[in-house]
Amino acid sequence: MTDKEKKRVVVTGIGAITPIGNTPDEYWEGLINGRSGIGPITLFDASHHKCRIAGEVKGFNPHDYLDSKDAKRMDRFAQFAVSASLQALADAQFVINELNAEQVGVIIGTGIGGIKVLEDQQTVYLNRGPDRCSPFMVPMMIANMAAGLTAIHIGAKGPNTCPVTACAAGSNAVGDAFRMIQRGYAQAMICGGAEAAVTPLSVAGFAAARTLSTRNDDPTHASRPFDRDRDGFVMGEGAGILLLEELEHARSRGARIYAEIVGYGMTCDAYHMTSPVPGGEGANRAMQLALKDALLDPMQVNYINAHGTSTAMNDTTETAAMKKVLGDRAYKVAISSTKSMTGHLLGGSGGIEAVATTLAIAHDQLPPTINLENPDPECDLDYVPNVSRAQKVDVALSNSFGFGGHNVTLVFQKFTD
């Protein structure tokens, strides 16, 4: 397909359920004000865990979006996904009906899926025997249910799938949805990521891998990307969803356009299960491929929403990769990690960060990297420390990298005719 034959794709709706707000407006207000959503774990008794803090979604009521029967048959990650998708459709004033249902698809990624249901049912199995396990265990647990249940609830009969690429899953979902519309397989796509893995086993597993912060006595300062004193990431939960539309379809119904998505690049380190390749070669190529796909030059980039996990290896590696892509311009491009406020949503992070990047373009305002008090000497770029910044944003990248060596970069651009 030639560049002239590719459809243009725009963002017309957003949904967000996050540790700093359960609507897109609340989420954006939290980001711009540098509010931390990290606190002591309340979803279970974490008193015996090494890590006792997380970015939990607070005050979420699934019954605001779902009837009690449906909510009861969903794991929390799927509740988040369906609810944020309904928000995005309402935000876009997009109606799915029998005339367009086959042209509307859903791609929602997750890293882990319904682990809470799995843990609960394992307890039932051990204490009460196999005959007492729920018949809904499997459909509540499997990772594709966020996408499948969303399609059921909104009536979308088009392309439907679920990337499970660890912490890159949400960004893969947005990129894959972009491709579906760009190549004419759908007119509109609900896409993003969801996760609800703040559970006893999940937290214990990540802590055993020595990836989590143990700054238990100071949770709001625990997630500190690019800071010399960082000691690991903080788990978060929630969902971020975009409604993407083919440009002419959006125009035909008078849709509001937040931004245009113009590039998608993905690579693999082929190096290590959990560690990025030194020097960020894979991340560098993902950014280069995304810019090439967008027909843009690195000199045009204004902002990067970094993966920025607050781990020693990620932050230095991503910084090195950005320097390779941007060259001398690296020191002039604003970069921020919104994980400093939300924590790391694993497979959901690419979703909420795509929302943040879209809103940064729409509002010409950059979210900060909070808790950046003592910069790591190897992390010497402009990370928009601690306070948001008003700045025109024409071209922005959103990076996501996952265990297994998955690297994804999305390119968003201010929409112009």
From TrEMBL:
Keywords: Acyltransferase, Fatty acid biosynthesis, Fatty acid metabolism, Lipid biosynthesis, Lipid metabolism, Transferase. InterPro entries: 3-oxoacyl-ACP_synth-2 (IPR017568), Beta-ketoacyl_synthase (IPR000794), Ketoacyl_synth_AS (IPR018201), Ketoacyl_synth_C (IPR014031), Ketoacyl_synth_N (IPR014030), PKS_Beta-ketoAc_synthase_dom (IPR020841), Thiolase-like (IPR016039). Its EC number is 2.3.1.179. It catalyses: (9Z)-hexadecenoyl-[ACP] + malonyl-[ACP] + H(+) = 3-oxo-(11Z)-octadecenoyl-[ACP] + holo-[ACP] + CO2; a fatty acyl-[ACP] + malonyl-[ACP] + H(+) = a 3-oxoacyl-[ACP] + holo-[ACP] + CO2. It comes from the Bacteria. Gene3D superfamilies: 3.40.47.10. SMART domains: PKS_KS. Residues 6-414 form the Ketosynthase family 3 (KS3) domain. Pathway: Lipid metabolism; fatty acid biosynthesis. GO terms for molecular function: 3-oxoacyl-[acyl-carrier-protein] synthase activity. Pfam families: ketoacyl-synt, Ketoacyl-synt_C. CDD domains: KAS_I_II (cd00834). Belongs to the thiolase-like superfamily. Beta-ketoacyl-ACP synthases family. Involved in the type II fatty acid elongation cycle. Catalyzes the elongation of a wide range of acyl-ACP by the addition of two carbons from malonyl-ACP to an acyl acceptor. Can efficiently catalyze the conversion of palmitoleoyl-ACP (cis-hexadec-9-enoyl-ACP) to cis-vaccenoyl-ACP (cis-octadec-11-enoyl-ACP), an essential step in the thermal regulation of fatty acid composition. This is 3-oxoacyl-[acyl-carrier-protein] synthase 2. It comes from Gloeocapsopsis crepidinum LEGE 06123. The gene is fabF.
